[in-house]
């Protein structure tokens, strides 16, 4: 609604995980470097955690764009209920034909696929998002996947992405074998107040802003106070604030407009 008024070509604060809008803060660069190190050095398991809305999925999609044709990748987003679903989902993501196959046959087909990838000079990477939702049994099944190896290398690199609860889950003695195999870990923290302002400016510029719209210093402070530097909350709040600016025909987003956006997000709408 407000794009034309502000002269924007794209919605600057869309909630979809578009890697084009990834803000490369120091912590985001560090996170990607950890992931790339784990993959390129064939460490087997890599763990990335962060609070809800911290930008883990966006970071993951940016990572996939950095992996060239030497890698076969699969991103598992859909929650699975049991080991059979897990194996079928993984095989499907890698494009393996599994029609009519049982779980053991799917495992054999996956093993053959991984060997063929090595013969072609490719490494294979499996990324599991929202891994904190996996049961202990499913996490153990994931660990068993890492047993597929040759004498000198792992055939499958696995990245577990999840909320902080994932770290707590992996402290369970039942999962100590999996925890011991994770050699690269990174926790993605929220943005600082300064980074929050840079993040907003970054997204506005990518969307086509040329100086306007802009957020006043008090407005930026209000955005951080509400969002605590969590990108998803920043996006939701700034989108509402731009709409408030549009309604008031103002290219300067002030403290009051952000306050109105906060009230709307919290459901405090007075008719």
Helix content: 40-55%
Topology as a string of helices (H) and strands (E): HHEHEHHEHEHHEHEHHEH
Strand composition percent: 5-15%
Radius of gyration: 22 Å
* Shape designation: elongated
Task: Supply the helix-strand structural class.
Answer: alpha/beta
List the quaternary state of the chains: single chain
- Counting DSSP H or I runs of 4 or more residues, the number of helices is 12
Largest sheet: 5 strands, parallel
Number of β-strand runs: 7
- The strand line-up of the biggest sheet is 2-3-4-1-5
- Determine the N-to-C terminus distance: 21 Å
Unreliable spans are none
Q: Name the average pLDDT.
A: 91
What's the gist of this structure?
This protein has helices at 3-6, 26-40, 56-66, 83-93, 103-119, 136-145, 165-170, 176-181, 193-206, 217-227, 231-247, 255-265, and strands at residues 45-50, 71-76, 123-128, 157-162, 182-188, 214-215, 252-253. It has 271 residues and is of the alpha/beta class.
Your description of this structure?
With 271 residues, the chain is an alpha/beta fold. 49% of the residues lie in helices and 13% in strands. It has 12 helices and 7 strands. Helix 6 (136-145) links the parallel strand 3 (123-128) and strand 4. The model has no long low-confidence stretch (mean pLDDT 91).
């Amino acid at each position: 609604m407000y794009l034309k008024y502000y002269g924007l070509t794209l919605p600057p604060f869309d909630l979809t995980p578009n890697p084009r809008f990834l803000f490369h803060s120091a912590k985001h660069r560090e996170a990607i470097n950890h992931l790339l190190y784990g993959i390129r050095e064939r460490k087997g398991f890599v763990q990335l955690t962060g609070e809800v809305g911290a930008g883990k999925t966006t970071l993951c999609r940016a990572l996939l764009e950095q992996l060239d044709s030497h890698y076969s990748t699969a991103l598992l987003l859909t929650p699975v209920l049991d080991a059979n679903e897990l194996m079928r989902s993984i095989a499907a993501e890698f494009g393996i034909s599994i029609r009519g196959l049982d779980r053991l046959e799917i495992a054999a087909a996956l093993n053959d696929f991984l060997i063929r990838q090595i013969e072609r000079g490719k490494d294979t990477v499996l990324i599991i998002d929202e891994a904190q939702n996996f049961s202990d049994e499913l996490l153990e099944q994931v660990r068993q996947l890492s047993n597929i190896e040759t004498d000198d290398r792992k055939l499958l690199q696995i990245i577990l992405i999840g909320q902080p609860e994932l770290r707590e889950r992996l402290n369970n003695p039942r999962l100590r074998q999996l925890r011991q195999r994770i050699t690269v870990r990174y926790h993605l923290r929220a943005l600082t107040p300064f980074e929050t302002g840079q993040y907003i400016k970054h997204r506005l510029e990518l969307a086509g802003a040329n100086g306007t719209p802009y957020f006043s210093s008090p407005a930026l402070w209000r955005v951080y106070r509400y969002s605590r530097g969590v990108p998803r909350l920043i996006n939701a709040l700034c989108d509402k604030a731009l709409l408030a600016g549009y309604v008031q025909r103002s290219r300067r987003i002030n403290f009051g407009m952000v306050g109105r956006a906060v009230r709307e997000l919290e459901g405090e709408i007075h008719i």
